[in-house]
Amino acid sequence: MKTSSKKRNALTLKILTYAVLIVVLIYTIVPFATVILTSARSAKDAVRGPFTWPEEWSVIENYIEAWKIGNFSKYLLTVFGTLIVATLAGYSFAKFRYPGRNVMYYILLIGMMIPFQTIMLPLYFTLKSMGMLNSLTGISLLMIGTGEGFAIMMMRSFFISIPDSMIEAARLDGCSELKVLTKVILPNTFPAWTSLIVITAMGAWNNLLAPMMYIFDQNKYPIPYALYAFQSAHTTDYQLLAAGMMISMVPIVIVYVAFQSSFQNGLMAGAVKG
Asked: Measured between alpha carbons, how far is 262 from 191 in angstroms, rounded to an integer?
């Protein structure tokens, strides 16, 4: 009897567990599915509501229009700019010995502790004096500069994990410092790069405050703030808004899924040594 009662309790617990997991799964998938369907609807069909099957499809047109309005291609400058600067600076801090190296690195770390809200006004006048206010280039350079602290720290930690003997062997073979970097170091940097691309892209994609402060032209809105461009005082282009949301989410998901193991290895490399 006791054995039978334990089996029933275990079965009941398993059923309840699966029931809760199914509810959570539905709660997670339904909003995502409605966004996908809405992004594929025509403008006329989008007003019918998100829980109806589309009668008129407009997939390619919606995504092309959302891509243009959102300036998605121009905003990739932030990711690649951060990656290049962080790689060069991180390698310098990790493998070169020169006066003031540690002081500059610690100043960089201290800069990470300064909240963005405290420097918004000085940055406004800095961009204005440089003629980069209300420009995507100015916003990209701003986000590269404010995000370099963590990026450089992460790349430095990764480069420290690379044995000095590998670099010395390349130097003994007659490689210049540039060849050491391009032929020896960079081919082994892929795990750290994938990690940094995901983190930087997520930060850039989710940054809403900087565009609100320094961009005034609707045609120049970057990714997060551009989603507001699909809305007006009286109407909302739901199909374009959904397409813009998909474009802003999908690249991050694809990069993470494709390079998940490299992403984890890059984070572990930065955590073990630093």
From this structure: 4
pLDDT at residue number 270: 45
The secondary element (H helix, E strand) that includes residue 146 is helix 136-160
The Cα 204–Cα 224 span in angstroms is 8
Q: With 0-12 CB in 10 A as exposed, 13-18 as middle and 19+ as buried, what is 140?
A: buried
Give every CB contact of residue 212 below 8 A, 6+ residues apart in sequence.
Answer: 225
Task: Give mean pLDDT, residues 72-82.
Answer: 74
57 DSSP β-pair partners = 41
Q: Which residue has the tokens 């890059």?
A: 266
pLDDT per residue as tens digits for the range 234-264: 456 777 778 877 877 776 677 667 666 655 5
DSSP character for 183? I
As given in the structure block, the two tokens for residue 49 are 């509501």
Global pTM exceeds 0.70: no
Report the Cα 136 to chain-centroid distance in Å.
17
232 backbone φψ class: left, alpha, beta (φ>0; ψ -120 to 50): beta
| Measured distance CA(188)–CA(156) in Å, rounded | 14
**166 close to 94: Cβ distance less than 8 angstroms:** no
Please provide the DSSP assignment of 154-172 as one string.
HHHHHHHTS-HHHHHHHHH
